[in-house]
Here is the input.
Amino acid sequence: MNGGADTMAPSATSMIAATSQRIGAVVLRHAFLMRTSWPRIFELMYWPTIQMVLWGFITRFLLTNSSYIAQAAGVLISAVLLWDVLFRGQLGFSLSFLEEIWSRNLGNLSVSPLRPAEFLVALTVMSLLRTLIGVLPAAGLAIVFYDANLFALGLPLIGFFACLLMFGWAIGMMVCALILRVGQGAESVAWLAIFLIAPVSAIYYPVSVLPDWLQVVAWMLPSAPVFEGMRAILIDGTVRLDLMAHAFGLILVYLAIGASLFLFAFHVARRRGLLLQIGE
Here is the structure.
């Protein structure tokens, strides 16, 4: 009997060791994958930091402006809806591009008569459609449930919408250029990039809440003047054309940079044959 027990013990031990090795191999595989992909490591630290910074500034603003709370509901809901235009515009562009990668169709497009500039325009059209489908129902429900009418902004709403949508396109172009450059491992940047600018876009609070050095950064983004202009209409009843002009001036710069980076990265990837390898 003792001999039988002795012969069974090594078998059980070896089974546990083999199981541990297999588990360790999978963990090691993902550890190596994470070590060689900086976007994956960055993503782990990203969301807690962004949430802490964003809501820290919101709390700081509300604590020093108690009179704002009485009229905050309509302003905050309008800010959320306009922010969603920027978010959906960028994500709609990036996801349309990523769907070509996931379906292994990017290589086929590169050898078709479709020009890269035409592909770029097609992605912006898809972004517009995705944004309208996502934002319009939400804007209607905000009127029904919260009596917050985003359309009360009037004609300036068209300018705000166009500015944020085009800024989303510009960010989407830069994200797609990065994916073309470093591969599909950077696809998580499509979700990270837009929230990186959220704390300095003055979505829920004025630019003046930010530290002085961050205010400089905020005014270098088209989003901050748009949200400042929105609050000027809803709170003060004033249309700030100077803020609108500021935003559109910056938009032209960002669109030029984004389109140039995308077209250059696409050209390099096609010349090196990388378009056939992305997604594998």
Observations:
- The radius of gyration is 25 Å.
